[in-house]
Amino acid sequence: MTALTLADARTIIAAAEAKASEIGQPMNIAVADAGGNLISHVRMDNAWMGSIDISINKAWTARAFDLATKDLAENSQSGEQFFGIHASNNGKVMIFAGGIPLTRDGQVVGGVGVSGGTGEQDQSVAEAGASALSA
Fold first, then answer.
1. Which sign does the torsion angle of CA 17, 119, 98, 50 carry?
2. Does a structural domain hold residue 80?
3. What would the pLDDT profile of 87-113 be if each residue is shown by its tens digit?
């Protein structure tokens, strides 16, 4: 497994920033490594301060469970298999769209987390970032 580098994180963030600019929504964008540790974070001009931790925690959650946070959200509603999961890990688990595991050669090597817009916006920006990771 090839570890994510700072250069990888910068590439992911640049692609995510471009998408955020394209849709006109300033975002917080975080990239975590395979251990869930933060590699890099960007708060675009005028992005919500309250979304800094959310973006970092979305990146961590995507890596911790190797699952997109939007998929975790669907399974964490009342009556579903992961109901209450957001209260685990000292409240660090994010259960809304915008966190995506990062893969290389079929292995999860980290996560990207985006926060600052609607769930749909966060997801589209995260997808743009994730798709920029070269194999």
1. positive
2. yes
3. 888 889 999 999 999 999 889 999 999
